[in-house]
Design goal:
rod-shaped; single chain; about 130 residues; about 0% strand; mainly alpha
Length: about 130
């Protein structure tokens, strides 16, 4: 009985090793790239979607119903008053996620600095949109 069990274990081990060898020596399966859903707003003509770019070639300022933020142009974000911070937060938290990258470009062109905590949050949103 012990002999039969030992032979069975050896036979199964050899069979497993043979199957492993065949799998590894054969052709590697093609790696499929993960498919991404098509964004209806993206033209697909660029390697990086232009609407998600943070650095833009466009010099025209696009407003996101935030003209009131122009009073902050050139001001250091650490010097904002609580009212000014609330003004920025109100605009940021009412934006659609798809508008965040464009809004950041608009702020850059207008020389408006975001407070660090909002900048981190905005970049996280842009990063998550790029991954999805």
């Amino acid at each position: 009985m012990l002999y039969v069990s030992l032979v069975s274990i050896v036979a199964l081990s050899l069979l497993g090793a043979f199957a492993y060898y065949l799998k590894k020596s054969g052709r590697e399966p093609e790696q499929k790239s993960p498919s991404r859903p098509v964004d209806s707003e993206c033209c697909g003509a660029h390697a990086v979607c232009e609407k998600d770019r943070l650095l833009t070639m466009q010099q025209e300022v696009v407003y996101f119903d935030d003209e009131e933020l122009d009073v902050l142009a050139g001001k250091n974000s650490e010097d904002y008053t609580s009212e000014e911070l609330k003004m920025i937060e109100d605009v940021f938290y009412t934006l659609r996620e798809s508008d965040v990258a464009g809004w950041l470009c608009s702020l850059q062109l207008r020389n408006i600095k975001l407070p660090q905590y909002l900048k981190d949050e905005a970049l996280l949103i842009v990063s998550e949109r790029r991954r999805s």
